[in-house]
Amino acid sequence: MVGLLASAGVLLSAAVTAAGMYYGLDWDWGSATVFGILIAATDPVSVIATFKQAKVEGRLRLLIEAESLLNDGTAAVAFVAVLGILAGHHQDFLSIARMLFVSVVGGVVTGGLVASALMLLAGRSPEYLVEITFTTLAAYGSFFIAEHYHLSGVLATLTAGLVVGNFRSSTLITDAGRQALEPFWEYAAFVANSLIFLLIGAQEAQQHFKNLWAPVVLAIVLVTLGRAVAIYPLCAIVLA
């Protein structure tokens, strides 16, 4: 279910949004496709925060959090692929498929290897601060290494996070480390999300939207429609 929503769901939502921008605002296909991919990956921060306040647990919260995490990887890979096509680097299907395969598989393998090696080193230290440092190195190190070799840094970091999460429940990590890891990364995620929205707000405050209200309204409608078109059929297929 999560895999379908994070892959086919994101791509279908991006296609609906791109088609609407092309036919509704007469955008060229390149700009419409890039915009559709960028906006298709949702970030349900407010929904998850509401779930936490309402103490919602179980499968529903797991599905939303997992899908919001994995769809970023799908959008990032698709975004790079579209930019490569528009730049003329990939003209045929085999070239595009090869690039996507190498980017996805290479990113996953890089994240797994880097995180596994660093967590094994972390397990040799009795200090929980050292263990937290190694998890930070695993997250950022896997990203930069993958990007250096033109692989998917987002998928590398995502894989590293899954590896760290599995190591967290093992006996290699100290009790203090297991207790400290989740609050540390929860705070790091809070700071990162806050900075992103503050920076976006500061940038958008300098823009004049008087002549852009029509594209903005249409984009909101298309994104909502795209997610609905993507989610409901997939849910029906899975639950059938």
In terms of per-residue confidence, which ranges show pLDDT below 50 for 5 or more consecutive residues? Answer: none
The ordered H/E elements are: HHHHHHHHH
In one word, what is the shape? globular
Q: What does the radius of gyration come to? A: 20 Å
Gap between N and C termini, in Å? 12 Å
Mean pLDDT score, rounded?
80
Percent of residues in helices:
over 70%
Q: How would a textbook summarize the main sheet?
A: none
Bin the strand percentage: under 5%
- Helical stretch tally: 9
Class by SSE composition: mainly alpha
Structure summary, number of beta strands: 0
List the helices and strands and how they pair.
Elements (H helix, E strand, L loop, with lengths): L1 H24 L3 H12 L4 H9 L5 H28 L6 H30 L5 H21 L4 H16 L6 H30 L8 H27 L1
Textual characterization of the structure:
The protein has 9 helices and no strands. The chain has 240 residues and is mainly α. α2 packs antiparallel against α4, α5 packs antiparallel against α6 (128-148) and α6 (128-148) packs across α8 (175-204). The longest helix is centred in the middle third of the chain and has 30 residues, at 93-122. The protein is globular. The relative contact order is 0.13.
Concise structural overview:
This protein is an all-alpha fold. The protein has helices spanning 2-25, 29-40, 45-53, 59-86, 93-122, 128-148, 153-168, 175-204, 213-239.
Jot down its keywords.
240 residues; mainly alpha
